[in-house]
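Lecture 7 notes: from sequence to structure.
We start with the chain below.
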Amino acid sequence: VVMRCDLGIDLHSAAVHRTNLPQVRVSVGNARTRELANVFGAPVILTSALREGSLRATAKEAGVDVLLYEAGEGLRFDEMAARAGVAGILRVLRHMDMLPAKGIAKARVKPLYCQSSKWLRAPAGGLLRTYRGDGEMVEIGDVLATVSDPFGESEVDLEAMVAGIIVGRAVMPIVNEGDAIFHIAEVSHDDPAQAVEDLATQLENSPLFDEDEII
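Predicted structure tokens for the same chain:
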């Protein structure tokens, strides 16, 4: 299939017990996928190295570019993730002249471009209480969650070690020491907080497309 393609869009949810903010991952230095990621219009564009054995890496060896779309939680339906994904795919198809422009609007808000990211891990095992969610901006030192023992006698805060936007997080209330809890991406934008708000509004207002609108 890859050998016959001009472009691939690889659709992923997060792993089981994790959730991802809608995001498109692209290779560093690939101007074409960066342009198409902007056309796709997901809230975040994140540069990501090719992983050996992945579809994106295999396609690259065959000379085919692939956009990797990550959104939502494994084993669950997520309407916002579906809206962002469907709209993004249609925008890319329109941009490549594979569909007419009828009913397919361009993204009204420019995605946040993130060149690096970091996972914050549980400082201890126990019960997890999270205070921040997907798409929220955080600063260094912000308390994002607390891990306590079952009786609440011992508590340890999980503080942000980097500033940026939360693009992924764990959703299970029980964690082990060292488990990945928050995925934070550094943001390149003049006013990231306003951009996040505008992107959220765009997704909420974006209609799910009817078949007749795109034929």
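Points to note: Residues 134 and 166 are 5 Å apart (CA to CA). Helices lie at 31-40, 55-61, 79-95, 192-205, 211-214.
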